[in-house]
Amino acid sequence: MDNSYYLECCIAGSDIPQRILLNTLPITIGRGSDCSVIINTSALSRRHACIEYNHSEIILRDLNSTNGCFINHQRIAGHSAIKPGDVVHFGDIEYCLKDDQDIVDDDERTRIQMQTLPKHFSLKRKELSELIDQQLVTTFQQVITLGNGDVYGHELLGRGEHPTLGSSPFELFQIAQSLNKHVELSRLFRQRGFAQAELAGMNKPLFFNSHPEECHNPDMLLLELTRLRKLHPGLQLMFEVHEAAVTDIGAMTEIRNELNALDIGLAYDDFGSGQARLRELAEAPPDIVKFDISLVRGVGDPQSPRYKLLLSLNKLVQEMGIATLAEGVESEDDALACKEIGVNYFQGYFYGRPAPIH
């Protein structure tokens, strides 16, 4: 073969891609000890597949496996040719076929994760690049209210506008994650959101998000926020940090101090969705804690354990001088219960669904 081909997969939670080199063919793939490539997962048969070279083509051959082999999410019957860019699916693991001409800087490297990406995700590289390069995104806002129903502020929510990609930020971030462009997409949503909010004359607090990985490089994050603050000095900004991103107290303390200098508030988002980190509240205190919908939904019964838990957490957080916000309020009963508990701010479908900025 003229080129060096390989299959690449990035397992969820790992920054190091796994590669199967195809410079010596044929090879067998399966979980049996006699296979050339052993993948230890029950979804694979003992001898699952074979990859061979035949008449200038790379051939994927299914070896009568139980769960089958797939190319671009289509199950093959017997064997089929594969080419660079194709997604090859063994059991529950997806690989992308690449050649040595695909080797680029890490920032451009395709990442493929197990069971986390939408179908045909790796076929969307071109479309996602177009979305980012042409800034084909817009911003929605969701209202945040006070206890009396008056508007306190808004959360900025990014949406896609590419003609062949969905508008959902969840799906767009899944595709971006596979291409290692998730931070780039997060910045684009932020930049577009601030610009649209200023153009619309929004003068109340604006809650904006980040990708959790951005907090792992606080210097880069703060440099970008400094630039945006200079572009939009009149906006009232509240930076939301997901609970999962608050892993390094030293980094969060640095971010907290720099945000103060930029006149940007700090909110801990989705608090209680996992293990609430009370130490961070003490050592890197935010201005606002947003209670996750899992704590809020169904809180309407004052005798329920959920009500008592939210009552205790709300009291604890407020006694530390931190305001509280209930997100995901969808019913009148839950809204009334959160008011009785003494939550400061409210957000959810009961008060308003996300809507375009005008």
Summarize the structure in words.
This protein has 358 residues and is an alpha/beta fold. It has helices spanning 125-133, 169-178, 182-199, 218-231, 249-261, 278-283, 293-296, 305-319, 332-341, and strands at residues 5-9, 18-21, 27-30, 37-38, 49-54, 57-62, 69-71, 74-75, 79-82, 87-90, 93-99, 137-146, 151-160, 206-208, 237-242, 264-271, 288-291, 323-327, 345-347, 355-356. It has an eight-stranded mixed barrel. A hairpin with a 2-residue loop joins strand 5 (49-54) and strand 6 (57-62). Helix 2 packs antiparallel against helix 3. The radius of gyration is 24 Å and the shape is elongated. The relative contact order is 0.09. One of its GO terms (molecular function) is cyclic-guanylate-specific phosphodiesterase activity. InterPro entries: Cyclic-di-GMP_PDE-like, EAL_dom, EAL_sf, FHA_dom, SMAD_FHA_dom_sf.
